[in-house]
Amino acid sequence: MLKNYFKIAWRNLLKNKTYGLLNVLGLSLSIGAAILIITMVKFHLAFDTFHHNADRIYRIVTEQHRDKISYTSSTPPPLSSALRRDYSYTENIARVVDADAALITIPQGKEVKKFKEDHLYFAEPDYLQIFNFPLVAGSAMLGEPNTAVITKRTARKYFGNTDPVNKTFSYNNLANIRITGVLKDIPAESDQQPELILSWPTVKLYDSFFSSEDTWGGITSDLSTFIRLRPGVSTAEVERQLADYVPRYRPKSKNVHHYLLQPLSDVHYNARYGGSMERKNLLILSLIAVFLLFTACVNFINLATAQAVSRSKEVGIRKALGGQRRSLFWQFIAETAVITLTATLIAILISWLLLPTVNNYFHTNISYILFSDPKMAGILALVVVLVTFLAGAYPGLILSGFKPVAALKGKVSPAQLGGFNTRRSLITAQFTISLILIIVMLVINRQMQYTQQFNLGFNKDAVVMVPMGSDQPDISRKTLAHQLENITGVEHVTMCFTPPSTSTAWNTNIYFDNREESELFRVNIKAVDENYLPTFGLRLTAGRNLLRADSAREMLINETAVRKLGLASPEEALNKVISFDGGQYKLTVVGIVSDFHNGSLHREIEPVGMAIMPDHYQQYAIKTNMTGLPTTLAAIEKAWTAMYPEKIYEYHFLDDSIAEFYETEQAMLRIVKIFSLISIFIACLGLYGLVSFMVVQKRKEIGIRKVLGGSIGGILWLFGKEFARLILLAFMVAGPLGWWLMNSWLKDFRYHITLGPGVFLVAIAGTMIIAALTVGVQSARAAMMNPIRSLKSE
C-alpha cells in the first residue's frame, strides 16, 4: 500500500512539474536555512559545557561605581592572592592573562622560524585544574619560570611532526621558554582559546603589573580571575566576603569596586562583560527558523489547494471506484512526504555548501554535525515529519472531502476549496514577517553607513598603524620615525600608545590643581608625541601643542575633561597641574584639544589626557596621501624590516580598526539580509499560490468581464488590488513593530540616525514592486485568456 502511495505521488509530481518545483524550492530554502540556524544555535549553546563541574566555575568581575557605573570582566591582580590567603571556600583559583600578538622564534639550523601568536596566555597552575583542557603528553609546570604547555595544533605548526616536549622557543626575543607538556586541541565551543600557555612567574616578561601584590587600583581587560567553588558554597556568601575587600584595600578611592561572581554558563552570553552572543539573539535566530518553516508550509497549502480544481475529477473517479477518504488523505500526505524529502535532501546540500561562508561571515569555527550528532539528525527528522503533516494535512482533508458527483462535474465550490480568508490571513502573516525583516535590514544598514560617514573629530582615512619593533625606548624608534617621514607619499608620522579612537584604553583617576581628593571621573590617558595632533588632524581650542621632549612634563586635555572638572572655560585649565598614577606623573596642562570620539558611537565622548610618555609607545601612526599607496606601503615595510629584521612586520589601516567596533552589528546585518531575501522570496511563492487560486476561482468572472468589454488593465487590477490590500494590511502590523524594535536597538548607540518615514516607505515600495513582478505573469495570462474557454460548460 505504501509503495503504491509513493508511486502515484511521484507520477503526480512529474505531471505537475511547476507545482512540485515551487514547493521543493520553497521548502528546500526554508529547511536549509533552518538547518544552518539550528547548527549555529546548538554551537553557541554548547559553549563551555564540557568542563568538569562547570556549575561551580565562576569568573570574578568588577562593577565600578564612579560618576557613572561601568562593568569589566577583570579584577585587580592581587585579588587572586588575597582570596587564596584569606578564605577556604574555593577549590581552585587562577589568574590568566591574554597576551596577544606575541613573537615566537624557533632556531632551526641556520634558519630562524618566526611566528606571530595571537592566542598566548600566562596562567597560574590551577588554571588547568579549573578548565578541562587535558594533557596528552608531558606535564604542566605552570608554577616554574620560563616553562609552557602547547596545544597539539600549534605544536605541529611550530615543530612539524616531532615531539615538542623539552623543546624551546624564544618569547618576544626576551627569554627562552621550555615546553613541558602538550594539550589536546581546545574545542571551538570555548571562550578560552589558549594555544600556548606560559607559566605564571614568566608574566613579568610581559608586564610586571600583573604579578604585583599592591596594584589594587589598576584593572586591565587582559587579566581574568577564575575560581571553582567547593560543593555547597553559595555565591552570595562569597560576594559578601568580597565586599570587605573594598574598604580594606581601597579605603580612599572614590572609584568603588564591587566584585561579583559570574557563572561560567553566563560568560559567552553576557554582553555587559564582553560576551559575544546574547541569548536573546539565539532566541531571535530560532524564531526566524520557525517563521521560515511556517511560511514554506503556508505556500505549500496555498499551492496545493490552488491545484484542487484540476484534481477534482481524479478524486471523483477514485471515490466512484470505491476509494475511501482515509486512503485519499494518506495519498496526499505521501505526495507531501515526497516533496518534503526531496526538499530536505537539497536543503542538506545547500546548508553543507553554505556553512564555510557562514563561518567566514561570523568568524566562527562551526563543524557540520548533521550526520555525526544523533540529536541533530533527530531534530531534522522531526522537522521533516512536522512539515509533512503541517503542510499536507490541510490540503489532504480538503481534497479527500470532495463529493464524487460534484467532483466529476468539476463543480467544486469555493467553500469546498478551503476558506479564502484563511489564505489571505496566512499571506498577510508571511508579508508581515518579511516587512519586519526588511525594516530591520534597512535601519541597521543606514546606521552602519552613518558610523562610516560620521565626523569623529579626527582624520582616520589613509592612516597606517605599524607596531613598534622594540619594547624599550631607544634611539632606533626615533631613527625609524625619521626614515618613515622621508618616504614619498608619507605626510606625517607619530609615535603613540593608541590612535584617538580605540578599544584599548588606559583609564585612571586624576588629581587636579592640588585638590585634596581625586575627581569622581576617570581620564583616558594617551601616550603621544609632538606630532600626534597634526598626524590625526586634531585641533586646539586653547593653549598650544606639546613641545618635543624625552619624558612627560606637559599635558593636553580635551573639552569634555574641562567640563567634567567644572571649569567655565578652556583657558581656566591652562597652566594647572594634573597628577595621576599614584603621583608618578605631575603634568602641566598646556593645551585644550577639541573633542573627538575616542571609542565607538555606542558611548559618549570620555575625558582624555595626552602626554609625551616614551615608555608607553607601542605604535607608529603614518598618515599617507594615498598617491601610489602600494609603493608607499612597500617602502614602509622595507624601512621597518631593515631596522628590526628579527621581528614580524605587520600593519593595518586605522579605519579598519574602527570598523571592528561594529562587528556585532555587521554580523547581524548579514544575518538579516540573508533571511530577509529568503523570507521575501518564500512570501512571493505564497503570493503566487494565492493568485493561482484566484485565477481558478475567478475564471468565469474574467470571461464575463471580457465579453462585456472589460479591458486587460481592469482585469489586472482585479488581481493587483488583492495583493496591494494584503501588503498594506501587513505593513500596518509590521510598521509599528519594526519601529518599536529598531527604536529600541538604536538606543544602544549614543549617536545614531533619526528613524524617519523614509525607511518605511522604501520597505513597502520595494515589497510592492517585488510582489507586482511575482503576480504579473499569472495575472496577465488570466487577463489574456480566450473568454470562450472560460465560459464554456463542462
Topology:
Layout lengths: L1 H14 L1 H29 L11 E9 L3 E4 L6 H8 L3 E9 L3 E7 L2 E7 L2 E4 L3 H4 L4 E4 L8 E5 H8 L8 E4 L3 E9 L12 E4 L23 E7 L5 H8 L2 H5 L6 E8 H4 L11 H28 L5 H9 L4 H38 L11 H27 L3 H6 L10 H34 L9 E5 L7 H11 L4 E7 L10 E6 L9 E7 L3 H5 L3 E4 L10 E5 H6 L12 E4 L4 E9 L14 E5 L6 E6 L4 H15 L8 E2 H6 L3 H35 L1 H9 L4 H35 L10 H27 L3 H5 L3
Parallel strand pairs: 6-11, 8-10, 17-22, 19-21
Antiparallel strand pairs: 1-2, 1-12, 1-13, 3-6, 3-12, 4-5, 4-9, 7-10, 8-11, 9-10, 14-23, 14-24, 15-23, 16-17, 16-20, 18-21, 19-22, 20-21
Helix pairs in contact: 1-11, 2-9, 2-11, 2-20, 9-12, 9-14, 9-20, 11-12, 14-20, 14-22, 14-23, 15-18, 20-23, 22-23
InterPro entries: ABC3_permease_C, MacB_PCD, Macrolide_Exporter_MacB
Protein name: Duplicated orphan permease
GO molecular function: transmembrane transporter activity
